[in-house]
Amino acid sequence: MSKITIIGSGNIGFSLAKGLVKSNIYNAEDIVLTRRTLASLSEEVALGFGVSADNSTAIEGAEIVVLAVLPQQIKKVMEDIASNVQPNQIMVSVASGVSCQDVKDVLGQDKIVVRAMPNTAIAIGQSMTCIATDNASTDAVNQVEKLFEAVGSVVVINEDLMTSATALCACGIAFFLRAIRAASQGGVEIGFHAHDALKMAIQTAKGAADLLLQTHSHPESEIDKVTSPKGCTIAGLNEMEHNGLSSAFIKGIKLSAKKAGGLYNE
Fold first, then answer.
1. pTM as predicted
2. Dihedral of the CA atoms 53, 56, 60, 63 (nearest 10)?
3. Can you give the residue range of the structural domain that contains 38?
4. Are residues 86 and 11 in the same domain?
5. How many distinct structural domains can be found in the chain?
6. Domain of 205: which CATH number?
7. Residue 181 belongs to a domain
8. pLDDT tens, position by position, for the chain (266 residues)?
9. Are strands 127-133 and 62-67 parallel, antiparallel or unpaired?
């Protein structure tokens, strides 16, 4: 298979590279990872990846180029590589709030651009990644889909929903983590040691998620199985709802989506 270049090997870029090797989609030597300084790529070198501090030469010969940089950095990175990007290369941007058109405005209108929005669970191969494009071919989208399936689940969506995907999946991981943290704090208040309470909250949350993934049932139907008349579960749930649990969650996701849309221009 042709090689892939990942520009910016922070958490997302490096995790993607490791996932691709683990899934036998690429060998480590088929992947080039870049950073501003070669000194900070020692771990990557030890694992057999190609490394470079020169983005422009690093993309030469790559079938796919992943731009795994922050939205505030992507414009400069694109300007640096623009003269070397070939029309047949698939450009994958993971920068939130940066449209396919934004990328083409710098790299050229004839370029193949696909956007991807993974989350930090990519580090353990459990990302929820959303993919979108303006007009890349089905074949190009399928290739990008295959990349991210190596590190979790993938949904292909319309491009106008990408900032929403950022809020629900990328920011969303923090919302669920905070909910787990809150549950563990409740556990301490009712008598458990902190480490036990956290372990219990984490496994309970994991069980809830796996229950929905494996049974394909709706959260409310699973909630109904736990809420008996005049019982302790419904009392706790209703107390949380009276204090705005669902409402706060929904408002947070809406505000994150609004914020995510403006990152490129800041």
1. 0.90
2. 90
3. 3-158
4. yes
5. 2
6. 1.10.3730.10
7. yes
8. 469 999 998 889 999 999 999 999 999 999 999 998 888 888 898 999 999 999 999 999 999 999 999 989 999 999 999 999 999 999 999 998 899 999 999 999 999 999 999 999 998 999 999 999 999 999 999 999 999 999 999 999 999 999 999 999 999 999 999 999 999 999 999 999 999 999 999 999 999 999 999 999 999 999 999 999 999 999 999 999 999 999 999 999 999 999 887 776 65
9. unpaired
